[in-house]
Amino acid sequence: MPGKPLDRLRARCHGWSMVSEDDVRSACLALPGTSERLSWNRPAWFARTLFARMWDDTVLTVKTTERAALLAMQPGVFLLHPHHEKYESLVLVRLGRVEHDQLVELIGESYRIADETPSRR
To answer: In the chain, what are the domain boundaries?
Structure first.
């Protein structure tokens, strides 16, 4: 399971289920028309456009219409990098702190948002 041993220990102590990159991959590839390829040398998933990308080994980037609420309600799960501040729909998700069901819901929302975005091709 990816993640640092201390992250896994914290997850067990707090009752979190440690979500992995493999869980992200499975959830993304289950969506119709999804392909996986590298973006900035990190695994990323595309339908019409990019809808999810691993920011690092334990953090995922997704699109959402609820960024402010997610950041306010679960600051331990969601965060922003200065790079993402100018993109209102992007949020980072700490895989070691998100529940699997919530991750699947976030990926589904990101997929729908990306599907509504005109492709650059």
So the answer is: 5-116
Residue 51 and residue 42 in contact, taking contact as beta carbons nearer than 8 Å? no
Backbone angles phi, psi at 16, to 5 degrees: -80, 145
Helices 21-29, 100-116: axis angle to 10 degrees equals: 50
Residues 70, 35: contact at Cβ < 8 Å? no
8 A C-beta contact, residue 76 and residue 94: yes
Using alpha carbons, select from 91, 64, 96 the residue that is nearest to residue 78.
91
Residue 54 bridge partners (DSSP): 60
Give 60-89 pLDDT, tens digit per residue.
Answer: 999 999 999 999 999 999 999 998 889 999
Closest CA to 108 of 58, 63, 59, 42: 63
CATH of domain 5-116: 3.90.1150.30
pTM over 0.70: yes
Q: Are 47 and 41 in contact (CB under 8 A)?
A: no
